[in-house]
Design a protein that fits this description.
Layout lengths: L4 E4 L6 E5 L2 E7 L19 E7 L8 E4 L8 E5 L4 E6 L14 E2 L6 E6 L6 E6 L6 E7 L23 H14 L7 E5 L2 E7 L7 E7 L2 E7 L4
Length: 227
């Protein structure tokens, strides 16, 4: 990763992560609040604890997304220049998902440039890729079902797996990797386009927005995967 990204924790209000060649998690002594635009705390503040976690794939990081999970609050999805998406549990090096296994492998080997977990349905991972003339650049993956047993897209707002424990999702994901199954997205769009950035749309987290380029024209579009 040539740049450093800042991600607020989706699991703890008083944590943020610097993501570059390593992941640095800053923990504040209390949730931050104050006047808008005012600097509240710096990296050397005595009330801030910083922990460094070197990454196994530090030279192959294109983007990163912090998984919203109370059971596993330090798991990150990492997108790579070769199109692969891996998981890394930065606080548990003995965890199987921290061994650099391939989680998702894109068909064309294009760079994965953006990742975003759905904040309300944490088994859904939105990803964006570089352009390829015969493939889509935007995909949604369901880590619970691997694209094989997923409910119809028009039912995406009614998925109940997010209410279940993330432990089950995590174990299922590890089994899928052991079996080396081919991952299939539950939704893809953006043929012959290049993704630049994306995010789940708020307050309606069933939709997402993406900035893409096609024919030298850059646009921001809002998509509803339910059709």
């Amino acid at each position: 990763m040539q740049k450093t990204e800042i991600h607020w924790s989706p699991n703890e209000r008083n944590q943020l992560a610097e993501i570059g060649a390593e992941i640095i998690i800053h923990t504040f002594d209390r949730p931050l609040s104050g006047e808008s635009g005012k600097c509240l705390s710096g990296g050397t503040n005595k009330k801030t604890t910083s922990l460094n976690y070197p990454l196994h794939e530090k030279n192959n990081i294109k983007c990163c997304a912090w998984w919203p999970s109370q059971e596993y609050p330090y798991v990150f999805a990492i997108g790579q220049p070769n199109g692969r998406i891996i998981f890394e549990n930065v606080k548990d090096r003995l965890d199987p998902l921290s061994q650099g296994r391939i989680v998702i492998d894109s068909k064309q080997g294009r760079s994965c440039v953006a990742l975003s977990w759905n904040p309300k349905i944490p088994n859904l991972l939105l990803s964006g890729f570089d352009r390829y003339r015969s493939d889509n650049c935007l995909t949604i993956w369901d880590i619970n079902h691997n694209g094989l047993l997923s409910p119809p897209l028009h039912q995406i707002g009614g998925i109940t797996s997010s209410a279940a424990s993330n432990i089950d999702e995590y174990k299922r994901l590890d089994i899928l990797m052991h079996n080396q199954q081919v991952w299939k997205p539950i939704f893809d769009i953006g043929l012959n386009e290049q993704c630049h950035s994306l995010a789940w749309f708020k307050p309606n987290d069933r939709c997402f927005a993406a900035c893409t380029t096609q024919h030298n024209s850059r646009t921001i579009k809002i998509y509803d995967p339910r059709g």
